[in-house]
Amino acid sequence: MPVTSVSASNSPRNVVVGVAGGIAAYKACHIVRAFKEAGDNVRVVPTESALKFVGQATFEALSGNPVSTTVFDAVDSVQHVKVGQDADLIVIAPATADLMARVAAGRGDDLLAATLLVATCPVVVAPAMHTEMWFNPATVENVEKLRRRGITVIEPAHGRLTGKDTGPGRLPDPEQIVDLANAVHAGARLPRDLEGKKVLITAGGTHEHIDPVRFIGNSSSGRQGFALGEIAAQRGADVTIVAGSTAQLSTPAGAEIVSVVSTQEMFDAVQERASDSDFIVMAAAVADFTPASQATSKLKKGSDSDEDALSTIKLVENPDILATTVHRRNSGELANNPIIVGFAAETGDQDTSALEYAQKKLVKKGCDLLMCNEVGKGKVFGQRHNEGWILDANGGVVEVEHGNKIEVAAQIWDAAVAFRKA
């Protein structure tokens, strides 16, 4: 999947991409290219060890800027201070246990460490290491130190590591790192306020099969649901995503994916897992109706016996996942009394706006919060950006300006956490 990036402003940013000496260093090349293609001025600052994995010439060609590792280069321009002072955003990917230890200790023994010592801009650190290193008490303590100092240390992905090892410690995909970094630069907060909380999210569209080949569906890509999972995981939550039809999206750090096809399957998966959830977010674009019967073999066009079956499809209503879950919560069936967030994909008409339709839906469904998107051709579904309004059960309405779906997800979680506290 190609990596794309969108700068938060129209003017180019000075982005520093730091690279530590790990096997995942090659992924930094995709990150550099993403920021460059967005119009940013990119400076790569690797460690000496990083250059054993990716050569200096590669980073210079991709960034269009000279590459240095030592504080003794360009001494006349005081490079070891200037790079950090001029930076609008610093992204370290991969960050090894050794680099994080040096940064936590306040070391300045190479250009990357010195750059971080003087930087006042947002800093995003993407760790990559073996599972045992990630869970080592020294690394855990160093990560906590960096987070307390305002540095964003994102959770590593779960997956195949170097050799035969599998587990947490894998560098997230470049697209995920770039999106999170842009969100942080745009002001998104990633506090650990969901630590220990269980989050259940629905994402993507559902397919209601007519026969083994044809189905009724929609254009939802699942991006917003996965973005909500990404932010929740980065804020410390234990995340489960019940996913219908989705694009080839990167799995949020540590999230469990439960794959379903139809609305009924999604309904069953949500009801099974709702009881021990602290937050439930219904971001999926589910089908309201399904064929009354599904043919066991492909219906043939033009066949006398099947002509009516294809031209007239009898539909029956699907179960209402959101309303049922709210009813179970209000009846005391859900042990953790979860905050429930709904979504409304609306189009306005000559009499009623999309927002007004969403306000009616919030009252009808009885959820705590509702994210309203005004959808249509080229809007929201399948796109990387979103906008709309966050409505709450107390009558509050917060406008969500046009932004990356990761940024929108951060605002939705801000609202959900604040509503639970209130």
From TrEMBL:
<dbReference type="Pfam" id="PF02441">
    <property type="entry name" value="Flavoprotein"/>
</dbReference>
<dbReference type="GO" id="GO:0004632">
    <property type="term" value="F:phosphopantothenate--cysteine ligase activity"/>
</dbReference>
<keyword id="KW-0460">Magnesium</keyword>
<comment type="function">
    <text>Catalyzes two sequential steps in the biosynthesis of coenzyme A. In the first step cysteine is conjugated to 4'-phosphopantothenate to form 4-phosphopantothenoylcysteine. In the second step the latter compound is decarboxylated to form 4'-phosphopantotheine.</text>
</comment>
<dbReference type="GO" id="GO:0071513">
    <property type="term" value="C:phosphopantothenoylcysteine decarboxylase complex"/>
</dbReference>
<dbReference type="InterPro" id="IPR036551">
    <property type="entry name" value="Flavin_trans-like"/>
</dbReference>
<dbReference type="Pfam" id="PF04127">
    <property type="entry name" value="DFP"/>
</dbReference>
<keyword id="KW-0210">Decarboxylase</keyword>
<dbReference type="GO" id="GO:0015937">
    <property type="term" value="P:coenzyme A biosynthetic process"/>
</dbReference>
<dbReference type="InterPro" id="IPR003382">
    <property type="entry name" value="Flavoprotein"/>
</dbReference>
<dbReference type="GO" id="GO:0046872">
    <property type="term" value="F:metal ion binding"/>
</dbReference>
<feature type="binding site">
    <location>
        <position position="298"/>
    </location>
    <ligand>
        <name>CTP</name>
    </ligand>
</feature>
<comment type="function">
    <text>Catalyzes two steps in the biosynthesis of coenzyme A. In the first step cysteine is conjugated to 4'-phosphopantothenate to form 4-phosphopantothenoylcysteine, in the latter compound is decarboxylated to form 4'-phosphopantotheine.</text>
</comment>
<feature type="binding site">
    <location>
        <position position="288"/>
    </location>
    <ligand>
        <name>CTP</name>
    </ligand>
</feature>
<feature type="binding site">
    <location>
        <position position="361"/>
    </location>
    <ligand>
        <name>CTP</name>
    </ligand>
</feature>
<comment type="similarity">
    <text>In the C-terminal section; belongs to the PPC synthetase family.</text>
</comment>
<keyword id="KW-0285">Flavoprotein</keyword>
<comment type="similarity">
    <text>In the N-terminal section; belongs to the HFCD (homo-oligomeric flavin containing Cys decarboxylase) superfamily.</text>
</comment>
<dbReference type="InterPro" id="IPR035929">
    <property type="entry name" value="CoaB-like_sf"/>
</dbReference>
<dbReference type="GO" id="GO:0010181">
    <property type="term" value="F:FMN binding"/>
</dbReference>
<dbReference type="InterPro" id="IPR007085">
    <property type="entry name" value="DNA/pantothenate-metab_flavo_C"/>
</dbReference>
<keyword id="KW-0288">FMN</keyword>
<comment type="pathway">
    <text>Cofactor biosynthesis; coenzyme A biosynthesis; CoA from (R)-pantothenate: step 2/5.</text>
</comment>
<keyword id="KW-0479">Metal-binding</keyword>
<dbReference type="GO" id="GO:0004633">
    <property type="term" value="F:phosphopantothenoylcysteine decarboxylase activity"/>
</dbReference>
<comment type="pathway">
    <text>Cofactor biosynthesis; coenzyme A biosynthesis; CoA from (R)-pantothenate: step 3/5.</text>
</comment>
<feature type="domain" description="Flavoprotein">
    <location>
        <begin position="14"/>
        <end position="179"/>
    </location>
</feature>
<feature type="region of interest" description="Phosphopantothenate--cysteine ligase">
    <location>
        <begin position="199"/>
        <end position="422"/>
    </location>
</feature>
<keyword id="KW-0456">Lyase</keyword>
<feature type="binding site">
    <location>
        <position position="343"/>
    </location>
    <ligand>
        <name>CTP</name>
    </ligand>
</feature>
<protein>
    <recommendedName>
        <fullName>Coenzyme A biosynthesis bifunctional protein CoaBC</fullName>
        <ecNumber>4.1.1.36</ecNumber>
        <ecNumber>6.3.2.5</ecNumber>
    </recommendedName>
</protein>
<keyword id="KW-0436">Ligase</keyword>
<keyword id="KW-0511">Multifunctional enzyme</keyword>
<feature type="binding site">
    <location>
        <begin position="319"/>
        <end position="322"/>
    </location>
    <ligand>
        <name>CTP</name>
    </ligand>
</feature>
<feature type="domain" description="DNA/pantothenate metabolism flavoprotein C-terminal">
    <location>
        <begin position="194"/>
        <end position="416"/>
    </location>
</feature>
<feature type="binding site">
    <location>
        <position position="365"/>
    </location>
    <ligand>
        <name>CTP</name>
    </ligand>
</feature>
<dbReference type="InterPro" id="IPR005252">
    <property type="entry name" value="CoaBC"/>
</dbReference>
<feature type="region of interest" description="Phosphopantothenoylcysteine decarboxylase">
    <location>
        <begin position="1"/>
        <end position="198"/>
    </location>
</feature>
<dbReference type="GO" id="GO:0015941">
    <property type="term" value="P:pantothenate catabolic process"/>
</dbReference>
